[in-house]
Amino acid sequence: MARQRSTAPGGSGHREQRRATVVDVAKHAGVSTATVSRVMNRNYPVAAATRERVEAAARELGYVANAHARALAGSSGRTVGIIVSELIDPFYAYIARGVEREATAGDRLCLVCCTQGDPQRELAFIELMHERRADAVVLVGGSVDDPDYRAELSRRAHELAADGAKLVLCGRPSLGAGVPTVDVEYDNEGGAFAITDHLITRGHRRILYLGGPPALSTARDRLAGHRRALELRGIERVPELEQPGAFGRSFGYRRMRELLRDGPEFTAVFAANDIVAAGAAQALEEAGLRVPQDVSLVGYDDIPVAQELRPRLTTVRIPLEEMGRQAVRVALNGGDEDDWRAPTTGALRLGTHIVVRDSVGPPAAAPHGRGSSRQV
Amino acid sequence: MARQRSTAPGGSGHREQRRATVVDVAKHAGVSTATVSRVMNRNYPVAAATRERVEAAARELGYVANAHARALAGSSGRTVGIIVSELIDPFYAYIARGVEREATAGDRLCLVCCTQGDPQRELAFIELMHERRADAVVLVGGSVDDPDYRAELSRRAHELAADGAKLVLCGRPSLGAGVPTVDVEYDNEGGAFAITDHLITRGHRRILYLGGPPALSTARDRLAGHRRALELRGIERVPELEQPGAFGRSFGYRRMRELLRDGPEFTAVFAANDIVAAGAAQALEEAGLRVPQDVSLVGYDDIPVAQELRPRLTTVRIPLEEMGRQAVRVALNGGDEDDWRAPTTGALRLGTHIVVRDSVGPPAAAPHGRGSSRQV
DNA sequence: GTGAAAGCGCTAACAT
DNA sequence: ATGTTAGCGCTTTCAC
């Protein structure tokens, strides 16, 4: 569908309202298009009087620059793309906020896409953003570990790089040394280690690890940190105490409920993220179990719901918004068309730390689980 | 700054990698650019064999279409813009989700901007999106009622319309009959009326209305609904029971705390939204007041936190995501360059309904407030 | 300080 | 079914 091209001159003296262009403005102001351009971009010496006239003409004609023509003619697309799996998930929303703010700060607009967890869609969106000549495409959150997928992603990264744009991996593992990406990560494994250790320090030995798709890098790293902490303290790993699954609230609720019925004994649960923790908390509540008296509970991410739960959730804080900011910051400044090493590759790893609130206590005298006495 | 024209990655014998264009692909495939275009857009008869060759050439050259050139040459920008005040606020996030999904469904990409509540920024973003030739610009959430601002907004609406694009007002009052906008609203006033009536029906007479910037249309409408319910039931309006303010959690918390210390008596609280309710809930909790035994509490929006609070919050549900969807749906289909009445103006009003959960009970024997006995 | 003109990469008539 | 050829609206040397 084309912009209205407006037919005909009509009989009346009205000129058809075709959108005004530089040419119109130039004519109207009695200058050349070059001058109009210079005025609009205010980046070139132009006589005050001339500028005044041009601006007046533009205003009068309701001139609105065409960003496409502008982008085509040379300068960058002034765009940053961000791809998340779900906008309403606070984890992604906070990162998106960081990206949006930094993009705006860098005088760019932000293209946003939601994959709903579909890697195929992710790839397609990268392509679309590349077509829009985005200066950077930020890929947020854990990724699956399919070789074909990684290969495709790498290919896209190269294509983008060939075009002077950057693919930013935010909170997911690097694609390897040869692939021109910018990596902005956080210490997933470390955070999980720290909070598990926190639990152990409080005396817990039987800790239930709950949630997180085993296929997602994020979830895998958290589980790895958890295991390392156990190992370091010489605590035997009990397979039934590892219950990965999904990252949603309903998973936390349902699985916890099942486990409460016929799962192993445990005195604490480490939910793979705060959302899962919220679900688990509900199951615990409905089972008449108190947190932290009967069972301790911790999460990961420190999104707002962590403070809304009762008791308030002890969890791992990630500098979400900061990650988003850094992602675009290094992508935009890290390779300013300077001829550094060919594809500018950056890496950044932000720290995490645990936030202690009220959901952890010493282990209950009678640990919870199959065959234990249940209070109801 | 131009696309990097530079050296190819690796030291091997690569030739200078300028981004491939239709011309390159055409040459490489031994066809004309027109054919390449037809293949890429798969919307025109092309011999299978030819198509095959072209596709191969494109793949081989790593051809990525230039969306700007494409947009310039005729077709639309394939873009929908959305402007919200804050992405991490679930109210906006859900609407944004609807917009994004519908945009994607309509084969468009989504430009997102956050104003952080600044009307000036809002205007600026509209302009930017117009420059990008967005097919629709969705403005989400309440607005201030400044005449100059409305005038500016109207001007932008006209400019957009002149360009075949639509300004969509989502959850905010129309700009008037003369202005070419698409309006997608929900029944703010009605929801407030309903939930206040719910409280009254349970026996409450002294209801505290808490939060919401008086300058925002959203907040004003909610307060209006509240007042109408009171009036209809013949309940006298007590000025001190109306405590507008902000839409944030901290406002709810602080003001509630102050009010608990030296405010008027009340048996129920109607928070202007769920976030404010969450803050109020905390203040209540800290004061040793139980909900709903000592005081009832309701909110507005029905965002996820409403289910996370204990007791679960009774509130007003708004079809947030649906609004977002409709916003782009009517904007995109409502005026398909057909020559209907000049500027296609649409309007849509979605319903709200209250969701009863556990935060409302009958009034406490001893109403809460200044001079009342407080349990601690 | 300002103008003229050559593209940027693509699509869409219009030919063939 | 495929090729030719104008532009789309803007920026940007290069002259003046």
Automatic annotation (TrEMBL), chains A, B:
Family annotation (SMART domains): HTH_LACI
Protein name per its UniProtKB record: LacI family transcriptional regulator
Membrane-traversing stretches: none
Residue ranges constituting the HTH lacI-type domain according to the UniProt record: 20-74
InterPro entries (UniProt xref): HTH_LacI, LacI/GalR-like_sensor, Lambda_DNA-bd_dom_sf, Peripla_BP_I
Statement: the UniProt record of this protein carries the keyword Nucleotide-binding: no
Coiled coil: none
Presence of the UniProt keyword Translocase in the record: no
Keyword terms of this UniProt record: DNA-binding, Transcription, Transcription regulation
Origin species: Streptomyces endophyticus
